[in-house]
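[job 4471] stage=fold_predict status=RUNNING
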Amino acid sequence: MEFFSKITNVNFLAQRRVAGVFSAILMIGSLILLIPGVRGLNFGIDFTGGVLLELAYQGPANLPDIRERLAASNFADAQVQNFGTASDVMIRLLPREGLDNKQVAGQIIAVLKAGDPTVELRRTEFVGPQVGQELTEQGALAMLFAMLMITAYIMLRFQWKFALGAIMATLHDPVVTLGFFALTGLTFDLSVLAAMLAIIGYSVNDTIVVFDRIRENFRKIRRGEPEEIMNISVNETLSRTIMTSFLTMLMVLAMLFFGGETLRGFSSALTVGIVIGTYSSIFVASALALALKATAADLMPPKQGKGEGEGEVDSMP
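[job 4471] inference complete, writing structure tokens
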């Protein structure tokens, strides 16, 4: 299936400097936002441990009144927010020393029922601090292991100039997505971590498709300039890139709008990741390879003795 009726002829790489500045701003801004003293990630109780309660009111919930009641009962650090509808409330608290999580939940329910007896408890989650610490370490190791394995594959699959471009494009997308979560304060939990791993896979897959076409065209169009060949390759894969992103986005937006609070973080991360991943596949990866002076000569097989491997073509760009 083709998104365009014919192959486009857009000079993407002519905008590589503008795209490079834009990407640098996104990356640096995201890294700054990830610093705990600046913004940092709003870790969910999966990582911090604590208590999470989902409550339902008969009418619109009065969040300021709920916060005042909790603060008066020594729960001033409770995070209170709407989710789903104006009558649905989520309350999150960090672990309390000397108090069992069930006791904390019971006290909160008692405080809120004193103000509105109709309030209904729909869900309660408890995560101990030790479990949260273990999940944090395992989550960080999972992302690190995924990046190392992808880096190893790319280094074996491509000539180093192309490999470096692919690796940087792959790093670009999750960092920017993490920056979005730091900026917006959306909860970073295990479902978002799963989305980050999916974004890494989506990004590297899209980049490899573009680089495979660049490799093919470098071999077919021997006399073309590298920038020209790369532009042709990006345009030839543009229809596939847009169709893949569009269809994936339809599914993700369905989860975002109809999946409820449970899928909100997961779908938000994928939404940002798909947009950034599509952008980086078109503008970042190829531009980095071009900046490293990638040419058709990089694809030529090494010289061999007479009669050895004549006519063979190197399998890696």
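[job 4471] summary: The mean pLDDT is 81.
[job 4471] exit 0
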